[in-house]
Amino acid sequence: MTEQVMAAIDGSQFSAGVCDYAAWASLALGAPLTFLHVVDNHPQTAEADLSGNLGLGAREHLLEELSHLDEQRAKVAQEQGRLMLKAAKERAIEDGVSDPATRQRNGTLVETLAELEADMRLLVIGKRGEGAHQASDHLGSNLERVVRTLHRPILMAPETFTRPERVMIAFDGSKTTRKGVEMLAKSPLFNGIPCHVVIVGAETGDNRSQLEWALSTLREAGHEAEGAIRAGEVEETLRGYQQEHGIDLLVMGAYGHSRIRHLLVGSTTTTMLRRTSLPVLLLR
């Protein structure tokens, strides 16, 4: 199958943003778009043992009823998923995508995406899923697991779509972020979009050399590019630069050993990624 933009949708508040960013990416990349909804039919743990002290006949009857309820829930979930996919397809067509595809699978989101990874050019996913608390400051647990599992670029979408007009890459000279600069330079996703390269650190000869390499790579590919080296705490410094320059899409490496690439390492995420309202393109 041709590599495609794949958008994972559910009933969360982020699904509209996922649809619109996926449509934008599909059109910019000239890649097919597929919407995916995964139905997790695991039984409800709260109902695991409601029959403890009942007689055998009553217990068997209750288990039959619970089984019937599980079947009904599964049918409702399947139908809800079909309606979500239908609405997502219609929304993408309104955004200009000619023939978006839809897929509904049973299982877990992470396992399903891992199975489909070979088909992906880019995954678009919401910051949190429908199971997360609406007021949560944290990323959804599914998103963190997906980022750790997949080896494809992942676009974390906010609730509402804003067409990107300025993109910033948090750069540290590492292999991952150098690859990110080269991807920005070559990818049609960022055609005509000014690129900002920011190194958080001291004004050293090595950092200056790294910055000049990044800027020249982008400029040689035809991009308008500017950059800066700024000392300070990573999240606060990047957030400040983003606000000063009206950045509306952030590119970061997901893993590694430097301060910037540690942003998703560990059991919690950074304040910047947890609270940002920007889309974030995460690279492996």
Inertia-based shape: elongated
Rounded to an integer in angstroms, the radius of gyration calculated over CA atoms is: 22 Å
Element pattern in H and E: EHEHEHEHEEHEHEHEHE
The secondary-structure class comes to alpha/beta
**How many strands?**
10
Q: Biggest β-sheet: count, sense, barrel?
A: 10 strands, mixed
Q: What number is the mean pLDDT?
A: 82
Q: Which regions are unreliable across 5 or more consecutive residues at pLDDT < 50?
A: 43-48, 132-138, 256-270
Terminal Cα span = 22 Å
The proportion of strand residues reads 15-25%
Count helical runs.
8
Helix content: 40-55%
Helices and strands in order:
Layout: E1 4-8, H1 15-29, E2 33-39, H2 56-94, E3 101-106, H3 109-116, E4 120-126, H4 141-149, E5 154-157, E6 167-170, H5 175-186, E7 195-200, H6 205-220, E8 225-230, H7 234-245, E9 249-253, H8 271-275, E10 280-283
Helix pairs in contact: 1-2, 3-4, 5-6
Protein name: Universal stress protein
Domain UspA: 1-157, 166-284
Family: Belongs to the universal stress protein A family.
